[in-house]
Amino acid sequence: MKKALQKFFAFLKNAPLLALVFGCLTAYMPQANAAQITSMRIGQQVGSVRIVLESDKAFDYQAFLLNNPNRLVVDAYNVDIQTTLQADPTNLVSKTRIGVLQGSDKRIVFDLKKPALIKKAFVLAPQSNMKWRFVIDVALCSQADFMANIGTKHAFSNTKKAPTTTAQANKWVPQEVAKPKKPRQKIIVLDPGHGGKDPGAIGAYGKTYEKNITLAMGKELKAILEKKGYTVYLTRSTDIFIPLRQRVKIAQKHKADLFMSIHADSAVNRNAKGLSVYTLSETASDKEAAALAERENKVDIIGGVDFSENSREINDILISLSQTDSRNKSSKFASYIVSEMSKSVKLINDTHRFAGFAVLKAPDIPSALLEMGYLSNRNEESLLKQKSYRAKLATSVSQAIDKYFNDPEIAALY
Ligand SMILES: [Zn+2]
Fold it and tell me: Is pLDDT at 202 greater than 90 in this prediction?
């Protein structure tokens, strides 16, 4: 009896340790009563993007937004997560991370490529053969609206367990998020049009080759931009032929923040003159723009390679949200070029135009095509041959690039 009592007291003495060991074990073991999340997916709704988590039972959650980088956070209480996110067809989410808040409470972080607001969050009871579904609808918004809605103050939640302050909620921060973001040098890819066996337009009076003017301008502009601190790559720095698709790939390989293709125009009407900037559109803004796009795109046929097979894939990408987004950025860039150029050179009417240039079809990279002037016009052909005139153009372009990256909406993305 005495021995038994001694054993009992010995057990009590160790009880806190046992409780600790047991507590630690349970924290890392799947909880028997935890909801099992077995699927995560993202889909497009009209005007919004829907994230759906499927589970075998309901769970408590709190969903909110955090910035730097922009992200959507879903804290899910007492769950096991047995899945990863399938590819995001909407291109809203760049990355997901799953971490442990404590025990079986988990945090799912969706890094957002674009600012978005939570519109709705709710739990749906199983219908027919389906599982429980946790649904969250988000819609794109401006960065200003995003910033006005960050933190747990604006959380969508069905639980009192959730931390009530952003500071509390922020305690658990995945490492990638905790790293301060270093401002990085902006990368610009300049694309001197044509080259090699493809001379481009040929001057009507002095027989100037477009390919030589575009290469000279590309090199000169590169030097100016590098002085300003940009990282600049040329798609070609010698007189070689590069297919259009290859030019786009070069920009993607360098992870360009901006892509600009450089050309010089020509027209049957020898009085036609002036500079214009084009950005991508499914449909050209007018007949001339369409004809020009056709001329510039023909280069691929000269190369003897059929790139038409690529076009469906590219078109599919174009339809995605990210393309719409980079198209808006491209338009913004073009408008800065127009406003800077208008200070120093003659522009043609309706200077910023839209056309379906193959070379501008780089998903995710804001792109524009500059037609510096008409080689079919006597005066402009002689101007474009002059280094001092190209320097004027290059300076204006570099100022437009500065303004573009300093634009509050663009700067917020870095
Ligand atoms: Zn051209």
Answer: yes
